[in-house]
Write a structure and sequence with these properties.
Chain A has helices spanning 2-14, 17-31, 36-60, 64-69, 83-90, 93-124, 129-140, 146-160, 165-188, 194-201, 206-217, 219-235, 238-243, 252-263, 267-287, 289-301. Chain A is an all-alpha fold. The chains are: A mainly alpha, B mainly alpha.
Chain lengths: 302, 312
């Protein structure tokens, strides 16, 4: 707890400095020579990241015969594209993709709308016992591991009729609250209260102040929270596994799990299916890479 | 109670001096009603979907509920049986072994790579992007790729080494190391980002001063870098140990707990016993113990690690 606060304090201290210091360092960089040893080392180590991805691609492009003869790493000749349509059919890919996309988008939208409002109310009233109590109540939940909730939760979602995509959105929104409120409040407290008071004097209500003054200022934190929620909801396996009961509601990771048994040793089709499951988020990441990294960085030091 | 008294007091003050009412209201102990409307729905939803299942779980841990049918109170017998159950103890042993080894490797490797990425290297942003890729991949799905690698590629590549030639995933003594490889591969991405943001908070002047004094690179790391990223080190170690203790996806992808139950983690055991083994009550008791263990371990780590943190 205290460490989190310390990090927070340090981060707040450090953040305003970062642009200035980075500029100073890039001036310095001009005179400093490129460290080729470090570059070479980083490049070699990055192979550990790239090799599994390469393996995923080449196996998906082979025929079973081409696969059996080698270690799996050889580039196939000729390339076999037929695995993709087959995986598409067998795993009912469009349905799983739609479910995952729906759950992810829904979770991100609801998380951004609710977490920011709660965090705003808490940040502006943190000196009041009730709000302070709520803040620590939410924070304490960060310590509670999912396995303790898992078994009763399944009964509860089934009773409430939430063992479907809508239920997943509700659960991601609520379970994300702890961390997101923590990320938002630190940022909201750094927004000068004078900005709001000006709007209040003009007769704006608290809700209006939030939507028109505070929410637009939260853009960087919205990006951070949005990215964290998106990656979580897209890739999560254990919650869909225990909560979703209808096969038609399956998410992408869950579909891979279910069809793993059916693929058996049919690795080439299975790998095509894995690639298609990983591709959407990977493509989004490639195009927004720097933005994603800076977003996550902001979240981690807050 | 106090809030109520305060509210009454402040409303009476407001009544006495209507001219200053607005100002008093802003400064009073009671917040504007809108703020309560913003917080209450979230608190209720959170209590309903998070706190309630926790309490229900604790309640059933004192019964013999199988997940269906009738149940009776059995007192503490679930808890007592847990400590005599070899399968449960083995699951804790595996989870701790895995978590400790994986936490050490994750932090050593990601700190080393973060230092490399922080140095002046060519195409720095490109390499940062590469190292962060595992973060956006599903552990389960990339885990299946690793499973193929360990069971099909590695036996052919390292056919001279019996351990790998016979498929390490089917080796009861060493299958856990393959799970460590997958876990570390995936978690390093996030840990590197945290360490990088930590390294950026260290003023460059410190290194200039140190090199003027003739400090070696290793000495600079030991005396400047490491102490100053102490808070980030703490966060990383606590977060990785906590998530590694709950390992699940990695095991499902690679060994599914096998061979036998040699790689069965606590989470996997709770999942299996609770849903298909008819041990609902017994495994919720296990989950309660697991919760206590994780909390104690996290708090203990904070205390130990914070003692050696340095500040500016």
């Amino acid at each position: 707890m205290t460490t989190a606060t310390t990090t927070l304090a340090q981060a707040e201290e450090a953040l305003p400095d970062v642009p200035r210091r980075r500029r100073a360092r890039s001036d310095d960089d001009d005179t400093r020579r490129v460290n080729w040893w470090a570059t070479a080392l980083i490049a070699v180590c990055s192979l550990t990241i790239l090799i599994p991805l390469y393996l995923a691609v080449v196996v998906a492009l082979k025929t079973p015969d081409q696969l059996v003869s080698g270690t799996g790493f050889e580039w196939p000749d000729p390339v076999n594209w037929a695995n993709f349509p087959e995986a598409w059919e067998r795993t009912n890919f469009p349905q799983a993709l739609m479910n995952t996309a729906l759950i992810t988008v829904g979770s991100v939208v609801f998380t951004l709308l609710t977490s920011s409002i709660v965090a705003y109310a808490l940040a502006r009233n943190i000196h009041r016992p009730f709000f302070k109590g709520v803040f620590f109540y939410l924070l304490a939940a960060l310590f509670i591991p999912f396995p303790i909730i898992m078994l009763p939760l399944v009964k509860q979602t089934a009773i409430l009729g939430l063992d479907n995509q809508a239920g997943m959105i509700v659960l991601y929104t609520i379970y994300g609250l702890s961390l997101n409120v923590f990320i938002y409040t630190a940022y909201i407290r750094s927004i000068p209260i004078e900005l709001e008071e000006a709007a209040r004097v003009d007769g704006a209500s608290t809700w209006r102040v939030f939507w028109q003054v505070i929410f637009p200022l939260l853009a960087p934190m919205n990006a951070t929270v949005g990215i964290l929620t998106c990656v979580w909801a897209w890739n999560d396996f254990i919650m869909p596994l225990v909560v979703l009961s209808d096969p038609a509601a399956r998410t992408l990771p869950l579909a891979q799990y279910v069809f793993q048994g059916q693929f058996n040793t049919d690795y080439t089709v299975a790998f095509a299916s894995y690639l298609m499951a990983m591709a959407p988020l990977l493509i989004v990441y490639v195009f927004s890479q720097r933005w994603v990294i800076s977003g996550v960085t902001r979240g981690s030091i807050k | 109670m106090t809030t109520l008294t305060q509210a009454v007091r402040s409303s009476s003050t407001a009544g006495e001096t209507p001219a200053r009412a607005k100002r008093v209201k802003l400064e009073s102990r009671r917040a504007l009603p809108a703020f309560y409307w913003m917080v209450w729905p979230a608190v209720i939803a959170f209590a309903l979907f998070h706190t309630l299942p926790v309490l229900v779980g604790i309640f059933f841990s004192f019964t013999n509920y199988a997940g269906y049918g009738e149940w009776n109170f059995v007192g503490l017998s679930n808890y007592l049986n847990l400590f005599r159950d070899d399968r449960v103890l083995a699951a804790y042993g595996f989870s701790f072994l895995f978590a400790i080894v994986a936490t050490i490797l994750t932090n050593v490797i990601s700190l080393a790579i973060a230092l490399g990425l922080h140095a002046k290297i060519k195409a720095r942003n490109f390499w940062r992007g590469v190292y962060f890729v595992p973060y956006v991949l599903s552990i389960l799905v990339i885990g299946y790729v690793f499973q193929f690698f360990f069971s099909n590629s590695l036996p052919k590549i390292l056919s001279g080494i019996p351990l790998f030639a016979d498929n390490i995933l089917t080796n009861p003594d060493w299958a856990w190391t393959a799970i460590v490889v997958l876990g570390v591969w995936q978690s390093c991405a996030f840990a590197i980002i945290i360490y990088l943001s930590g390294l950026q908070t260290i003023p460059g002047e410190l290194y200039e001063a140190a090199s003027l004094d003739g400090a070696s690179a290793w000495r600079q790391f030991r005396s400047i870098t490491f102490p100053l990223i102490g808070a980030f080190f703490t966060i990383n170690v606590v977060l990785s140990l906590k998530s590694y203790l709950q390992v699940f996806d990695q095991i499902v992808a690679l060994t599914n707990g096998g061979p036998g139950t040699s790689t069965e983690s606590v989470t996997l055991l709770i999942f299996r016993g609770g849903f298909s083994g008819g041990e609902f009550a017994y495994q919720t008791a296990n989950a309660v113990i697991f919760f206590i263990v994780i909390t104690v371990v996290s708090l203990f780590q904070f205390r130990v690690l914070q003692r050696r943190e340095a500040d500016f």
